[in-house]
Input
Amino acid sequence: MAKKNKNDVYEEERYTLKKTNPALKTLIYIFLLIWALINLFPIYFMFTFSLKSNDEIFGKNIVGLPKDWLWANYASAMKTGNMGLYFVNSIIVTTLAIAISIIAAMMATYAITRIRWRLSNLTNAFFMLGLTIPLQASIVPVYVVLSKLHWLNRYSTLIVPYSAFALSMAILICTGFMVEIPFDLDEAARIDGCGLWGTFFKIILPLMKPALSTIGVYSYLQCWNEFMFANVFISDSKHRTLPVGIKALSGQHTTDWGPIGAALVIATFPTLFVYIFLSKKIQESFIAGAVKG
Output
């Protein structure tokens, strides 16, 4: 066996000493605890904010627990503010936009990376141009197109633009995963009698699960929190999403901030719950994407 270099032994011992040093461990735990409290404080503040009156919010009890737990703020947000309807609208728009962007991105990436044709590279470059277009710069032309098509104030008014603007990033993510899949699998599938669609659905798609998770998370955050398109393209209350509905709770002269805090909790906590239950899958997808990149 080869002898270890003295420097290697020293480095190993120094690392072990740091790893097992009780004082260092204590400092690390204290730092992590403080960091966790800093990150959890906005969630705590939002939740307690939603259960207070205006008097407590503005001066009397800003940070502390509510003296009177006003759960009626949630009832007010759901009934008077129509947060229940807006919540359902956000779920419908977000779910369909994610599904469309995933299906379109998978098929487009499969055609670009796995099928040999002359304009594949040019097509991929065309899709990547979408990453350079700011969302704000497209509001007027998209509004004009939707208006000409009489497509305003519908669910599809938001679903189609959300899917389109998520497509470029989704294709970029899918490309990083799909190019790593060996082409021998395609050839073996064709020998076994699989056609183009069979190869895509039975061979390629099951291997792209990490990419599906990554695209789903990216599209969810983009669609669930989007405000500008939803505010400009939707003028009736029937199809409003949560961000626009929360804005509508603010009055012109007086504002009851408790129901607004309740609406913020309704809009924010689903994202936290999704991450809590899917955190392992989300982390695996991002790690897999980093390795393949």
